[in-house]
Design brief:
Structural class: alpha+beta
Number of strands: 8
Shape: globular
Order of helices and strands: HEEHEEHHEEEE
Number of helices: 4
Radius of gyration: 18 Å
Oligomer: single chain
């Protein structure tokens, strides 16, 4: 069955990396227009669009970009993993792996991230990403201001 499906699709792939600069914890960057533009230029008519954060303390979500709802989401995430709590990940006297020169105390960010996705996959039909009326693709910063990268991959025909 899988063989016939893969042979039925004239596979074409397009990839793009988007660089963003976040400003603070809970900074939200709308990627929807960038994604739609890339899809249009790709000339891929039907398939899938995958959008992936390349970071463990940032997420990609599909949600309404309604300011009060986004404040509610931030509040819920902050209750789940408050910055003021103690996290083993932050004990740099005990921690021995995945350390870098500018290591930050961000156990709360990783714990927030486990409740969200690192990627979303969206349907592409007639060279248009299929969105509901209020859906937007949002990059959600769960740590601190820093440069970030998001990859977009379109697979289809």
């Amino acid at each position: 069955m899988l063989t016939s499906l893969s042979s039925a699709i004239n596979n074409m792939t397009k990839n793009k990396t988007i660089k963003v600069q976040t400003k603070a914890l809970f900074d939200i960057i709308d990627l929807t227009d960038d994604i739609n533009s890339f899809v249009k230029k790709s000339n891929i008519k039907n398939g899938l669009v995958n959008v992936q954060s390349l970071h463990t303390t940032a997420s990609i979500i599909v949600q309404e970009k309604e300011p009060l709802l986004l404040e509610d989401i931030k509040k819920v995430l902050d209750k789940i993993a408050p910055k003021k709590d103690k996290y083993n990940h932050d004990d740099l006297d005990r921690r021995t792996v995945n350390l870098c020169d500018d290591e930050c105390i961000n156990g709360h960010s990783h714990c927030k991230a486990i409740n969200l996705r690192t990627s979303v996959t969206l349907n592409l039909i007639d060279n248009k990403v299929q969105f509901g009326p209020w859906q937007r693709v949002l990059f959600f910063e769960l740590d601190r201001a820093r440069p970030r990268q998001v990859q977009i991959q379109i697979l289809g025909e």
